[in-house]
Amino acid sequence: MPRLLTIRGSCKMVVDALNLFIEYYLKSFGVAVKVRYLKTMKSSICISGFAWLVAMSLCLIARSQLTTDFYSTSCPKLPRVVRKQMISAIKTETRMAASLLRLHFHDCFVNGCDASVLLDGNDGEKFAFPNINSARGFEVVDDIKTAVEGTCSGVVSCADILALAARDAVVLSGGPSWNVPLGRRDGLVANRTGANTNLPAPTESVGNITAKFVAVGLNLTDVVSLSGAHTIGSARCAVFSNRLFNFSGTNGPDKTLSDPTMVSDLQAQCPVNGDGNKTTALDRNSVDLFDNHYFKNLLNGRGLLESDQFLYSSDEAVSTTRSLVEAYSKDQQFFLNDFVKSMIKMGNISPLTGSSGEIRKNCRVVNS
């Protein structure tokens, strides 16, 4: 009896909560409704209502999570549409695979994975120091979005397009595939300041980079495995030429860049006062193949970026990242498995779901 009396006494609260949940639940599907408020309930109905409330709570919690079958009904052809556009883009320019993989990374580390990196405007993330004259592939995203809209208009977010494009970039470069969790929505604002502070820099220490990963829910393994994305792509002379001449006032190159042939080649390609926008491969001797060669290069002092070589050669690395670099260099499948896990974790950084954000019509601007 005491339990029944408690339920009866709380009946009005249950009714009020039921009405709120009905409104929110339908709103999350984009349904505009007016709910006729319930006035009275018998105790048995109240108990049933409480059970329904619990069920709807669980349903909404589940709905707030990303799922691999999110578009199975609303846009079943989505993976094929994205893959077709990615094949075309990479066939036109092989480097585009790395560029689109990097866009997803730079998106997720600022405001979460909400496609804010794609927004135009002078205060956009595109113009933050880590991205200006560096982030690229926006036209390819536009092409994918146009193709997707032609198949299922107003359904797929730009944030999910970035996640799928990143996966396909890896696959089309010879790397592993995985089922991409989907259901993200697009953010309404860019965060240029956040891009300047949150994104790892090519000269930062292991400790600093790890702190930035931890700040978004990632860990040391993610630092090393996701750095392995540098097995494809290129870097501009401007971001590593400081290592080639009079490094830290030594009148010589960075000693951790220990392959003399590589140093000579880079000095010729990136001379003092040369064109800082010239590029060279991040993974020497394995330019476009997604494999573990990047880690083998680190063991031999061939990491192009200072932050890459830090993972093996720095004092910090001895007790943090070096052992994992060595393990990945010996076991490619170990690296690929961890890379996939880290990509899924990264793709789940603070996504907008449910009724948050929007589905942009144009990835470059918020809806009017």
From TrEMBL:
Subcellular location: Secreted
Superkingdom of origin organism: Eukaryota
GO molecular function: heme binding; lactoperoxidase activity; metal ion binding
Keyword match Iron: yes
Catalytic-site annotation from UniProt: 106
Residues the record lists as binding Ca(2+) 2: 231, 283, 291
Residues the entry annotates as binding heme b: 230
A GO CC term attached to the entry: extracellular region
Keyword field: Calcium, Disulfide bond, Glycoprotein, Heme, Hydrogen peroxide, Iron, Metal-binding, Oxidoreductase, Peroxidase, Secreted
Chain ranges of the Plant heme peroxidase family profile domain: 65-367
Enzyme Commission number(s) from the entry: 1.11.1.7
Free-text comment on the cofactor: Binds 1 heme b (iron(II)-protoporphyrin IX) group per subunit. Binds 2 calcium ions per subunit.
Residues binding substrate: 200
Disulfide bonds: 75-152, 108-113, 158-363, 237-270
Signal sequence residues: none
One GO BP annotation of this record: response to oxidative stress
Requisite cofactors: heme b; Ca(2+)
Pfam families: peroxidase
Keyword Transcription assigned: no
Family: Belongs to the peroxidase family. Classical plant (class III) peroxidase subfamily.
Physiological role: Removal of H(2)O(2), oxidation of toxic reductants, biosynthesis and degradation of lignin, suberization, auxin catabolism, response to environmental stresses such as wounding, pathogen attack and oxidative stress.
Listed name of the protein: Peroxidase
Source species of the chain: Centaurea solstitialis
